[in-house]
C-alpha cells in the first residue's frame, strides 16, 4: 500500500523481465534434476538390459533437453522490441514449443523401436531390483519437476512451461510402469519388459498429442474465453463506458495484450474520452491476469444519424468488427 506503482513501459518491461528470469531459474534447476535422474537410470540400464528402463531413460533425457529451447526463448523474450519486431520476441516461446513437440516425437520413435526389437529378439533382464529402484527414482524426479514447472508456468503465464511440466508428470507415471516390467520379469514373464516399453511409447504419444494441441492454440492466438468474459465485465464497470464493443486478446510469450472498443458519450471532450480510455486500460491491467498492455479505442455513441466509421465500411468483412457481444454497464 505504501509503494507507488505505475503502468508506463518501464514498469511493464520490468514485470516481463522478472517473469522471464523466473522461467530461466525453473528451467535450470529442473534440467539438473532430470539429467541426474536420467544418468542414474542409464547406469542401471547398462548392466540390466531392461528395454523398459531404456525407454524411460530416453524419455527423461528428452524432457531435460526441452529446457534448452525454452531457455533460449526466455532469453530472447528479455530483448527489447525493435522497429522490425515491434511486439518484442515473446513469440519465441511458441517456437520453442514446436521444438518440444519434435523432441517428444523423437523420443517416442526411439522407445517404440527398442521395444519392438526386444520383442523380436528377446534378451534376459538382469538386476531386477535395481531396475525397480531406477523406475522409482524416475518417478520421484519427474513428479518434483512437474510440480515445479506447472506451478511456475501458470504463475507467469507460460503455456510452453506448463506443457513441459505436464510432459514431466507423464514421464513420472511411465517410470512407475518400469516397476511392472521388472515385476513381470521376476515372476517369469520376460516379455513383460518390452511390453511395458510399448506401453511407455503409447504414453509418450498421448503426451505428444496434448502438448501439440496446447502449442497449436498459442500459435493461433487462442485465449481462455473466461478471460474475455472478465475483460468485458471490467470494461462495462468502468465509469464513462456506455457499451463494450469488440474485445480481442492474444498471448505474446507469457504476456497478454488486448485491443478493445468502448462506446462513450459523444458530448465528451477529447480529453474526457481519453481519460475514460486510460481508466479502462488501467483497470484491465490490474484485474485481468497476465495482461501487460491494452489499446483502447473510444467510439462516440451519437448523434443518431452519424456513421463515424463510414470510410472503413468497404474494408471490413462481416463480423470482423465485433468478436464479443455488447455488454452494458450496471445501471
UniProtKB/TrEMBL annotation:
Family statement: Belongs to the cation diffusion facilitator (CDF) transporter (TC 2.A.4) family.
Compartment annotation: Membrane
Protein name, entry field: Cation diffusion facilitator family transporter
Compositional bias of kind Basic and acidic residues: 305-317
Gene3D superfamilies, per the entry: Cation efflux protein transmembrane domain, Cation efflux protein, cytoplasmic domain
Bilayer disposition of the protein: Multi-pass membrane protein
Keywords: Membrane, Transmembrane, Transmembrane helix, Transport
InterPro entries from the UniProt entry: Cation_efflux, Cation_efflux_CTD, Cation_efflux_CTD_sf, Cation_efflux_TM, Cation_efflux_TMD_sf, CDF_Transporter
Domain Cation efflux protein transmembrane: residue ranges: 29-220
Cation efflux protein cytoplasmic domain ranges (all copies): 225-300
Domain of life of the organism encoding this protein: Bacteria
PANTHER family per UniProt: MITOCHONDRIAL METAL TRANSPORTER 1-RELATED (PTHR43840)
Residues annotated as transmembrane: 26-45, 57-76, 96-115, 127-145, 166-189, 195-212
Annotated segments matching region Disordered: 296-331
UniProt keyword Nuclease, yes or no: no
Amino acid at each position: 500500500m505504501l509503494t507507488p506503482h505505475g503502468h508506463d513501459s518501464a514498469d511493464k518491461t520490468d514485470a516481463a523481465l522478472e517473469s522471464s528470469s523466473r522461467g530461466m531459474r525453473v528451467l535450470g534447476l529442473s534440467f539438473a534434476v532430470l539429467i541426474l535422474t536420467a544418468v542414474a537410470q542409464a547406469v542401471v540400464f547398462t548392466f540390466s538390459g531392461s528395454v523398459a528402463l531404456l525407454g524411460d531413460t530416453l524419455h527423461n533425457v528428452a524432457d531435460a533437453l526441452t529446457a534448452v529451447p525454452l531457455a533460449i526463448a526466455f532469453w530472447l523474450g528479455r530483448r527489447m522490441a525493435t522497429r522490425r519486431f515491434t511486439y518484442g520476441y515473446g513469440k519465441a516461446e511458441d517456437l520453442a514449443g514446436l521444438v518440444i513437440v519434435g523432441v517428444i516425437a523423437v523420443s517416442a520413435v526411439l522407445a517404440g523401436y527398442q521395444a519392438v526389437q526386444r520383442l523380436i529378439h528377446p534378451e534376459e533382464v538382469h538386476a531386477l531390483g535395481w531396475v525397480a529402484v531406477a523406475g522409482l527414482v524416475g518417478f520421484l524426479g519427474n513428479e518434483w519437476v512437474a510440480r515445479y514447472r506447472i506451478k511456475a508456468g501458470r504463475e507467469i503465464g507460460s503455456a510452453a512451461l506448463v506443457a513441459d511440466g505436464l510432459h514431466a508428470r507423464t514421464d513420472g507415471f511411465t517410470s512407475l510402469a518400469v516397476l511392472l516390467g521388472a515385476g513381470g520379469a521376476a515372476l517369469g514373464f520376460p516379455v513383460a519388459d518390452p511390453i511395458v516399453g510399448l506401453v511407455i511409447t503409447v504414453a509418450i504419444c498421448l503426451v505428444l498429442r496434448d502438448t501439440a494441441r496446447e502449442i497449436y492454440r498459442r500459435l493461433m492466438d487462442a485465449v481462455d474465453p473466461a478471460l474475455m468474459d472478465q475483460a468485458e465485465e471490467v470494461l462495462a464497470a468502468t465509469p464513462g463506458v456506455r457499451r463494450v464493443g469488440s474485445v480481442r486478446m492474444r498471448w505474446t510469450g507469457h504476456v497478454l495484450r488486448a485491443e478493445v472498443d468502448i462506446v462513450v458519450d459523444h458530448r465528451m471532450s477529447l480529453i474526457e474520452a481519453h481519460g475514460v480510455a486510460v481508466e479502462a486500460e488501467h483497470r484491465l491491467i490490474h484485474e485481468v491476469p497476465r495482461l501487460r498492455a491494452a489499446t483502447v479505442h473510444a467510439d462516440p455513441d451519437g448523434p443518431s444519424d452519424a456513421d463515424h466509421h463510414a470510410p472503413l465500411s468497404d474494408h471490413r468483412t462481416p463480423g470482423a468488427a465485433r468478436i464479443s457481444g455488447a455488454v452494458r454497464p450496471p445501471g
